[in-house]
UniProtKB/TrEMBL annotation:
<protein>
    <recommendedName>
        <fullName>Tyrosine recombinase XerD</fullName>
    </recommendedName>
</protein>
<dbReference type="GO" id="GO:0051301">
    <property type="term" value="P:cell division"/>
</dbReference>
<dbReference type="GO" id="GO:0005737">
    <property type="term" value="C:cytoplasm"/>
</dbReference>
<dbReference type="Pfam" id="PF00589">
    <property type="entry name" value="Phage_integrase"/>
</dbReference>
<feature type="active site" description="O-(3'-phospho-DNA)-tyrosine intermediate">
    <location>
        <position position="286"/>
    </location>
</feature>
<keyword id="KW-0159">Chromosome partition</keyword>
<feature type="active site">
    <location>
        <position position="171"/>
    </location>
</feature>
<keyword id="KW-0238">DNA-binding</keyword>
<dbReference type="InterPro" id="IPR010998">
    <property type="entry name" value="Integrase_recombinase_N"/>
</dbReference>
<dbReference type="InterPro" id="IPR002104">
    <property type="entry name" value="Integrase_catalytic"/>
</dbReference>
<dbReference type="GO" id="GO:0006313">
    <property type="term" value="P:DNA transposition"/>
</dbReference>
<dbReference type="GO" id="GO:0003677">
    <property type="term" value="F:DNA binding"/>
</dbReference>
<dbReference type="InterPro" id="IPR013762">
    <property type="entry name" value="Integrase-like_cat_sf"/>
</dbReference>
<feature type="active site">
    <location>
        <position position="251"/>
    </location>
</feature>
<keyword id="KW-0963">Cytoplasm</keyword>
<dbReference type="GO" id="GO:0007059">
    <property type="term" value="P:chromosome segregation"/>
</dbReference>
<keyword id="KW-0233">DNA recombination</keyword>
């Protein structure tokens, strides 16, 4: 019954929790992997007992999985078994008493402002429609702090209601209005003038789908630029900027957006809203920036911190 129950679980996560496609894909992979491992031990995923799951977690540790990966897989199992219990497909929850490996929450990788300037300088050196698109992508990513999926799938109509803002649909289908800088708006305007170059031919079946997106794709089934293609484009720009491509990703630029805002005086709540975090606790990973700023403020401004002449 595992395959059917997993499908029902994913349907529930999509319908009731508004889980994004990437989240659903991750749950599917984790549950199918757990099912395969348990089946190899002669146990069905839906019938597994707590000792079976403990043995599964021990096997993951022996395989050298990172604590973060093991914790994510345990989270998927916990949600799955709570679903089975709620739907009456099990009389107990074998994962309820399990705890994942303890892990320190890492600070996000971040670029310095000088690194960001170097990236933009490299993008500015690109010619033609490809260069215009690269600059628009970079400006929107860094000016708005968008997730990469939000960026590449931006509808062309996202700018329709407020020209100085972009309407972003984030996780769970939640919409937010993200204000943009003049530079970002100018880059998007310049790109729109050559956007048609990136559309499929008029006779192609994918033309009507691609026309909906700000960053269309001439190939593929999604109609818009893929996350993978943009990530590669960003690494190419990093290489031209003299930066380590392995250290540059769309998510790193999103972190840079948040970190640089806080470093220049933004408050945590405002950054939470701009990032589209449902809970401020997610944004609190950036509190180290606030702590550094407050330390400098006290050191520079407090009368008692001033050195005697």
């Amino acid at each position: 019954m595992s395959a059917r129950a997993i499908a029902l679980f994913l349907d529930m996560m999509a319908a009731e929790r508004g889980a994004a496609r990437n989240t659903l894909d991750a749950y599917r992979r984790d549950l199918e992997d757990a099912s395969a491992r348990l089946t190899a031990r002669g146990v069905d995923l839906d019938d597994a007992a707590t000792p079976d799951l403990e043995a599964l977690l021990a096997a993951l540790a022996r395989d050298g999985l990172a604590p973060a990966t093991t914790a994510r897989r345990l989270s998927a199992l916990k949600r799955y078994y709570r679903f089975l219990l709620k739907e009456g497909l099990r009389a107990d929850d074998p994962a309820a008493a399990l705890s994942g490996p303890k892990r320190a929450r890492p600070l996000p990788k971040v670029l310095s402002e000088a690194d960001v300037d170097a990236l933009f300088a490299a993008a500015d050196a690109l010619d033609g429609p490809g260069g215009a698109r690269a600059r628009a992508l970079l400006e929107l990513l860094y000016a708005g702090g968008l997730r990469v999926t939000e960026l590449v799938s931006l509808p062309l109509a996202a700018f329709a209601r407020a020209e100085r803002c972009v309407i972003v649909t984030g996780k769970g289908g939640r919409e937010r209005l993200v204000p943009l800088t003049n530079a970002a708006l100018e880059a998007v305007s310049a790109y729109k003038a050559v956007r048609d170059v990136h559309l499929p031919p008029r006779t192609a079946p994918s033309r009507s789908r691609a026309e909906r997106y700000l960053f269309p794709s001439r190939t593929g089934t999604q109609g818009h630029l893929t996350r993978e293609r943009f990530a590669q484009l960003l690494k190419d720009i990093a290489l031209e900027a003299g930066l380590d491509p392995a250290a540059i990703s769309p998510h790193v630029l999103r972190h840079a957006f948040a970190t640089h805002l806080l470093a220049h005086g933004a408050d945590l709540r405002s950054v939470q809203l701009l990032l589209g975090h449902a809970d401020v606790s997610t944004t609190q990973i950036y509190t180290h920036v606030l702590e550094e700023r407050l330390t400098r403020l006290v050191h520079d401004a407090h009368p008692l911190a001033r050195k005697p002449e």
